[in-house]
Structures are given as structure tokens and as C-alpha cells.
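PT: before anyone asks, these are the final sequences, not the draft ones from last week. 693 residues across everything. Please model them as a single complex and drop the result in this thread when it's through.
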Amino acid sequence: MSSENIVMEQVLVNGLYLGMQYALIALGLTLIFALMNVLNFAHGQLYVVGGFITYIIYGKLGLPFFVAIVASGVTLGLVGAVIEKFLFRPVIRKSVREESTMLLAAAIAFFLDAIILLLFGEKQRGVPKILDGVMNLDFVVIMPYDRILIAALAGSAVVTFILFMQYSKPGRAMRALAQDRIAAQLMGVNVDRYSMIGFALGAMLAGVAGGLLVSIVGVNSGIGGPVSIKAFMMVMIGGAGVISGAIAGGFILGMLESIGLTVLVAYGDLTYLVIFVSLMIFLSIRPQGLMGKPWG
Amino acid sequence: MKRITFLKASLMTAALALTSVHSPITLAANEVLKIGFVGVTSGPAASWGISNQRSMEAGAAIINDNGGVKIGSVTYDLEIVSFDDQKDPKRAIAGMEKMAQENIHYVVGPNVDDGAAAVRPVAEQNDIIYFPYAFPKSLYQKPASNAVLGMVANYQSGPAIYKFLKDNNGVNTVAFIAANESDPLTQRESGVAAAEALGLKVVSKTVTYQVDTTDFSPVIIPIVKLQPDLLVLSGVAPANAPQIIRSARELGFKGLISTETGQDAQVLQEGAGSLANGFISVGGASTPTIRTKNMEAFIARYTEMFGEYNDESNTKVYALEYIVETLKANPAAINNVDEFKKTMDTFSAPNQYLKGDQVLRYVGMSSFGQRRQLSIPLVVNVYNEGKFETLFIAEVD
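LR: through. Structure below.
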């Protein structure tokens, strides 16, 4: 087998792994947008808080990793509910301009950045590996076992979320809300309650993603903004407000990164240049993204 | 009326009693000498600036607790005035202008190349000597004269490290990886030049990564494939180093890994664990075998003030020390930077942080043609099981 084939198989596996991470991050953002038409600029910061909670509970207190992930999810769910009820809801009620919620989201992002730096400090934080060892398939594919486990857990979270949205009463209510807010209201869906649940669920997904990934890539107070930007890119690729679009966007970005970083390396750092240029061309042709609806 | 008077008297007595408990009666307060800091204390690179700022604040606290510093016939308490430039040159300029407005003549920072270049006109127009942690030689060569490099530059440490590894570890091939921004790319260029000058074969020098990268496996694959003897992480931030090391080792990289930037042992431990064993970096008075009791006291004070220590402060501890000692050597320099510049040519003082005979002095004649660099001992460390061990110590320039 040629060395180029060996590298490409590794690249594809890396792309799938990255895609799974990104899909989990993008899901929360697209859910919030679908329900409330709010671009949550603080999504990356919620991810960071989730990471730090897992760092403290698993890394510092020594409690089981699963407990830490649950704590990250529950905490961020509560934070999301509070943010929706006491910040977004009054603004949406009082303001006629959509920009108001965008500004509020940006303010929350700056606020969380400052709080995170104050509470958790400036250093990069990491936790002990949850699983030792590396899978080595004759040097064709090399993947640490902890990454495989995290990818599997992320995949389970995505599947659980989809099943919840498809078959549970709150899930159906939120899908109705996302499709047509007024019609859902007329059908008896409590808009306030399910907006709050939806925001909480979106924040919870961000927290869970942060908690899972702290075991692989660590966390520091400065990565919230860059995570938000990547999440927006995935949502734009797949289509804002569309769950399947967020998943597709996550995997597409993961693959583009993995392939680009290997194939284009000889020409310098062109990967993100190519990704951004491709995104601009794609959005100019199809502004609603892959699966978004043309009418929004 | 009598009750109110009694109540007032009781309250006043209580207030006086509290004051006497928490504020011992003092003589006239010392004058205040303000020293500035302009650097990055938020965002992904916050660690660089925060370690500067906290080093200065801890150093100032120790001096103030000991009654202040006597410069000439006047005793001063030190006050550190800080400004977060967010790694933005425009904000760095605003920060330096603020220092000028507060009549501050000595400023530590900025932390990055473009910020350090941007503030040069402001510093020169307002008689400010500044101590950047940025490496471009133009900042320190004539006609520039107000900037003093606060640490060992990578084009000084790189050759020393590569030569040591070539002579002692049989390194013949080297690869470089850098973040896609100004400082790391500049450091990579000088690192490549230094390696080639030593006769090392550079097998890769084009691999870069975005500053906000969290997963380095896709980035590092092309280098792991080449299996160089040495992988240099040019200008790597402490947040990224453990992730790159971990990815490289998990993918099967067997060679040495080094950097010319300061790192933190706890960050390496948490991010890479034993996978970081053997990682080579640059530190200051960083290991117990070489640091003095004064350095131990500094570390203790820093930890008490801020909750935990940052090993990057092992090199950052020197900036305030140099400023204070130079002013003590020439009190006329308090408000006159030309006097400070004159003093730099002959200044010498004991190094209170490092065991041995090393002294504080200004260097830079061979790199810059003038003494515009703090002489910080080049302490090269190797990380092992949660701690740094000293590999070798050298002086540059």
C-alpha cells in the first residue's frame, strides 16, 4: 500500500472524528436558532463552561467522567434556561428589531468570557486520559482509544437528541414551534415553556460537547469565540435552523479540515483560505445552506 | 440627646479601634512610583500577558511589604498600572498613550511583534522606555533606542538548543511547525536559518496551524510521516504545546520535541501527561536546584496572591527587577529616560533569583549593536513527570 493511501485513510478517519465533534457543537446552535430565530454568539462560551465543569469534577475532584459530563449538561441546561427566561424573552417581547437579540447574545458572550477568565484563570486545562492505548491498524489508521470512545459518545448524544426531537412530546412541540410559531401557539403549544426548554437543550448540548472534548483537547478561557465561529460556519453550510443540516455541516467541515490540512500542506497554510473561499462561493449560490429552506 | 451622643461616641470609638487593628499607625506614606504594563491579558494568549502582569504585581508587593524601595534619598512604594491590549496593536497604542498621560516612563510589554512595533512612536515621543517580549531586531537596533528586549530571543536560544541536541543527542534532521500568525512564523524563519547554519537537514518547514486549533492530529500527520530527529514548535503558546505533543506522540512520533518559548509544567501535565516527558523548553530560574530563596519567596507570594503559580513567570520576574535596580543605580533616571539609557551601558547588579555568579546587566551588542536587552539566563529545561529539570544554562550575547 502506498504512503499516500496510508495517509488518506488516516485523513478520512480523522475527518469523521472531527465531524462527529463538530456536529454535536453545531446542533445546539441550530436548535436555538430554529426555535427563537436567535444567533447565539455565546454558544462557544457555553461550550467552554461545560469543559471547565468537567475539568473540575473529573480532573480535580476525581469523580467519574460520566458524572462530570452529566454535571456539565445539567449545569449548562440550567444556565440556558435562565438566559432565555430572564434575558432573551423580555428582549424578544419588547423589541421589534432582530438585531436586539444578536446584540444581547454578543453581550452575553463578552460577559461569559470575562467570568470564565475570572473563575478559571488563563491557563490551558486538561484532564487525565479516560482510556489509554492507541488502535494501530498496521499503520494504515492510528487512532487513540479515547478518541474513539469520545466519538462514540458524541454520536450517541446526537442520536439521542434526534430521537428525543422526533418521538417525545417536548420534541414534537419544539419542532412545531420551529416550523410555524403562530400555528403552534394556536394548536396549544406553550411558546414560552418550549422556547426555554429548547434554549436549555441547546446550551446543554454545548456543555456536553465541551465536557467530552476536554478529555481530548483540553480547554482554556480564550477558545469560546473561535468555537462559536466554527459553529456558525457549520450551521451556514448545512442550513440554519435545520437539525440534519447542522449534522451535515459538521461532517463537511471536519472532512474539509482534515483533507485540506494534509493535501494542501505543501503549498502553505491554505486550508482555511480554501474553506472560506468555498463557503463564500457556496453561500452566494445557495444562501440558505445545503438543507435550509429558501424562505428561511 | 445623651443617648445619641453616647451612640456617636461609641461608633467613633469602634471605628478608631478597627482602624488601629487593620492599619498600624504609620509615619508619612512613601511616594508612589508607577511602573506600567501593556500586554495581552485576555483571549487565547492571555497567559503571556497575565504572567507578566502578575509577576510585576507580586514583585511590587514584596518590595512594598519591605518598606518600599529607596531610590536616591526618596523611598517609593511601587504601583503597577496595567492595560490589556488584547493582542491588538491599536489597543497597545492606546495603552501606551494612557501610560504617557499618567506620566509613566517605564513600561513592560507589549507581548507580540506588531504591538511592540506599533507603540514605538508613542514611546519615543513621550519619553517611555518599554520592555517588549517581541523579537524583531529592528525594535532594538539604531535608530530605535527606547525598547529593551525582556527575554532571550529565539534566534539566540534556538542555535544554542539545536547545537546542544546535535552534539549530545545525535540530532541530524529537524522539522518546524508554527501557528499561522506573525510571531510564530518569524520565529520559524529564524529557527530554520539557525538549523541550516548548524548543518542540520530541515525536512519540513511549511506546516502551520490556525491559532484557534484544538485538534492537532490532522495538522501533525505530515510531520509524523517524516519522523525527523527533532520537531520544533516555533513560538508555540503554552495552551497549544501539550495538544501538539500529545497528538504527535499518539500518532507514533518518536523524535525529540522542543520550543524556544516558556512553558508551564502543570499545563503540560494536564494536557499531555507522561507523553510530554522529554519536551525541551526555555525557562528562567525555574528549577529548585538553581533558584535562590528570594525566588522561592517570589513564587510563594505569587501563589498567595493569585491562587497558583505560572512557570512562565520564571523569565518574567526580571523585568521589574531590572527597572528598579537601574533606577537605584541612577536616581536621576526616575523621570529622565536619557539617564536610564546612559546607565544601561555600565549597569551591573547581583541576580537575586539564580544561584551562582550571574549578574544582571544589559546585553545586545552582537545582536543589536547596542545594549538593548535584559540579560536573562538562558535556562533550557526538559519536562519529566510533572516537573522541569535543568538541561543546561547558557548566556546569550
